[in-house]
């Protein structure tokens, strides 16, 4: 298949997958296309010029990128690099975000201040895409949000701004499960100026469930109205929640419907704070048979939990204040006082400290923590980015770190070291993300939790999280192969959008 991918003057062929909305399925479809191409022997790379996400990953050389791009690289069978997501925005509040460029934080800004970064970031994005097109046989790009966010078009570097600069053909994906997909697709195209419309090569309908013949009249009318084909109608797939980057994808329950293991279930409640980050730490728990994982935002939702997890946070002090406003802090402290298990990961681990000193993230100075571990936290300007290896319960643990806070552990009786963190009775804390993906460690930890909680629960001996992740990625590759016009995909990547595509009124918006 590699010989069928012909390089052009700009390097490797490339395609941009845009969406009518956030969470329309862009990440999933890019992952599936990468998997399908890799199966054909194509050396393919994912690319997202600008990502806004609190779910990130660390590359082998210590760069921070969006979690979705790391997952897409894994689907492609290649090592993730900073070039695959050159600009990452990590919101710390409704108005301010940390700006990460080529895997390194360069500052905090609000929406207005971000405009000052735009020219530099546009160059960084273009250079990163050119780097990938020089190294790989093909590049599959993912847009951000919607290309029809006309208030943001002038400074756009991730959607039509990128497509225009690089001459990329664009597929627009719509989520039919939301309703109004035809209006969303037609409206997206109509809101674009003519030069942008000329790059929109077709549509993909995502999350369809029902009789295909009922959809066909709508597809025909969309073709007539826009002059563009529908290159695929993708079915609804259950269980594709691994490695999501957007908290929009979170729901009250995590994972598939699970039958109790030999009549026994371990209940896990994850506190869903406003700035929850790297919540994919929980995915490995959710694939365990007999483990019931739910997100919680009120104290009573913790009542029957055997394990409460305080996950990562982009705004530790602010999220801790949010917990106090709702009485969740008291509920967690009460649990620990009754020897009921609590696990804190990264920002959640910081919350368990006696004192948090933060002049960096929140500027709040000294703030009391929950006091459940004999630790104190000092926030540093430099971010720690690493992929550590350690051991716990006699098993090797591979993980990754992304944090500003540095935790000091007091050497007090009854305190045990736990990975890089510590444990005191039924409270565990660590800065390591991804530790629960290590199967043997996860089973040992869950067995310990069950014993502390007085639950008659035994982890399944053969759950393989890496294999589960691979199976789900393979399902996406199968979906692309079966339900998308893959010949058309290859044509678009090699030849670009068809010439003289019709312009859909109303157009004529100001140029970007």
From TrEMBL:
<feature type="active site">
    <location>
        <position position="433"/>
    </location>
</feature>
<dbReference type="InterPro" id="IPR029062">
    <property type="entry name" value="Class_I_gatase-like"/>
</dbReference>
<dbReference type="Pfam" id="PF07685">
    <property type="entry name" value="GATase_3"/>
</dbReference>
<keyword id="KW-0315">Glutamine amidotransferase</keyword>
<protein>
    <recommendedName>
        <fullName>Cobyric acid synthase</fullName>
    </recommendedName>
</protein>
<feature type="active site" description="Nucleophile">
    <location>
        <position position="346"/>
    </location>
</feature>
<comment type="similarity">
    <text>Belongs to the CobB/CobQ family. CobQ subfamily.</text>
</comment>
<dbReference type="InterPro" id="IPR033949">
    <property type="entry name" value="CobQ_GATase1"/>
</dbReference>
<keyword id="KW-0169">Cobalamin biosynthesis</keyword>
<dbReference type="GO" id="GO:0015420">
    <property type="term" value="F:ABC-type vitamin B12 transporter activity"/>
</dbReference>
<dbReference type="Pfam" id="PF01656">
    <property type="entry name" value="CbiA"/>
</dbReference>
<dbReference type="GO" id="GO:0003824">
    <property type="term" value="F:catalytic activity"/>
</dbReference>
<dbReference type="InterPro" id="IPR002586">
    <property type="entry name" value="CobQ/CobB/MinD/ParA_Nub-bd_dom"/>
</dbReference>
<dbReference type="InterPro" id="IPR011698">
    <property type="entry name" value="GATase_3"/>
</dbReference>
<dbReference type="GO" id="GO:0009236">
    <property type="term" value="P:cobalamin biosynthetic process"/>
</dbReference>
<comment type="pathway">
    <text>Cofactor biosynthesis; adenosylcobalamin biosynthesis.</text>
</comment>
<feature type="domain" description="CobB/CobQ-like glutamine amidotransferase">
    <location>
        <begin position="267"/>
        <end position="440"/>
    </location>
</feature>
<dbReference type="InterPro" id="IPR047045">
    <property type="entry name" value="CobQ_N"/>
</dbReference>
<dbReference type="InterPro" id="IPR004459">
    <property type="entry name" value="CobQ_synth"/>
</dbReference>
<comment type="function">
    <text>Catalyzes amidations at positions B, D, E, and G on adenosylcobyrinic A,C-diamide. NH(2) groups are provided by glutamine, and one molecule of ATP is hydrogenolyzed for each amidation.</text>
</comment>
<feature type="domain" description="CobQ/CobB/MinD/ParA nucleotide binding">
    <location>
        <begin position="16"/>
        <end position="237"/>
    </location>
</feature>
<dbReference type="InterPro" id="IPR027417">
    <property type="entry name" value="P-loop_NTPase"/>
</dbReference>
């Amino acid at each position: 298949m590699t010989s069928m991918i012909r390089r052009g003057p700009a390097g490797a062929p490339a395609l941009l997958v845009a969406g009518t909305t956030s969470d329309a399925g862009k990440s999933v479809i890019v992952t599936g296309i990468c998997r399908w191409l890799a199966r054909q022997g194509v050396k393919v790379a994912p690319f997202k010029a600008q990502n806004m996400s609190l779910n990130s990953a660390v590359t082998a050389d210590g760069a921070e990128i969006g979690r979705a791009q790391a997952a897409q690289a894994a689907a492609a069978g290649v090592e993730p690099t900073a070039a695959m997501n050159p600009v990452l925005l990590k919101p710390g509040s409704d108005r301010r975000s940390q700006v990460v460029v080529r895997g390194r934080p360069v500052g905090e800004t609000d929406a207005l201040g971000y405009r000052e970064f735009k020219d530099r970031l546009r160059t960084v994005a273009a250079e990163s895409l050119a780097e990938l097109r020089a190294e790989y046989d093909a590049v599959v790009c993912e847009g951000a949000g919607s290309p029809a966010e006309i208030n943001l078009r002038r400074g756009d570097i991730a959607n039509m701004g990128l497509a225009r600069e690089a001459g990329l053909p664009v597929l627009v994906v719509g989520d039919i499960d939301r309703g109004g997909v035809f209006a969303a697709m037609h409206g997206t195209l109509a809101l674009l100026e003519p030069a942008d419309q000329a790059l929109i090569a077709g549509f993909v309908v995502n999350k369809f469930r029902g009789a295909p013949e009922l959809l066909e009249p709508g597809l025909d009318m969309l073709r007539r109205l826009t002059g563009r084909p529908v290159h695929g109608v993708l079915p609804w797939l259950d269980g594709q929640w691994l490695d999501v980057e957007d908290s929009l994808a979170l729901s009250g329950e995590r994972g598939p419907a699970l039958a109790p293991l030999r009549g026994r279930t371990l209940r896990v409640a994850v506190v869903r704070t406003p700035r929850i980050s790297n919540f994919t730490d929980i995915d490995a728990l959710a694939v365990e048979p007999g483990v019931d994982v739910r997100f919680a935002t009120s104290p009573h939702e913790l009542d029957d939990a055997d394990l409460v997890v305080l996950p990562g946070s982009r705004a530790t002090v602010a999220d801790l204040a949010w917990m106090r406003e709702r009485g969740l802090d008291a509920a967690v402290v009460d649990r620990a006082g009754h020897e009921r298990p609590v696990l804190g990961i990264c920002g959640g681990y910081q919350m368990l400290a006696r004192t948090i000193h933060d002049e960096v993230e929140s500027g709040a100075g000294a703030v009391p923590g929950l006091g459940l571990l004999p630790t104190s936290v000092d926030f540093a300007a430099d971010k720690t980015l690493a992929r550590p290896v350690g051991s716990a319960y006699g098993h090797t643990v591979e993980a990754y770190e992304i944090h500003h806070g540095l935790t000091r552990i007091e050497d007090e009786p009854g305190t045990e070291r736990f990975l890089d963190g510590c444990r005191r009775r039924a409270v565990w804390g660590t800065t390591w993300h991804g530790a629960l993906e290590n199967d043997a460690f996860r089973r040992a930890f869950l067995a310990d939790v069950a014993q502390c909680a007085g639950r008659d629960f035994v982890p399944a001996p053969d759950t393989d999280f890496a294999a589960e992740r691979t199976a789900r990625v393979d399902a996406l590759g199968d979906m692309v192969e079966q339900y998308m016009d893959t010949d058309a995909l290859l044509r678009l990547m090699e030849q670009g959008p068809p010439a003289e595509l019709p312009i859909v009124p109303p157009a004529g918006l100001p140029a970007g």
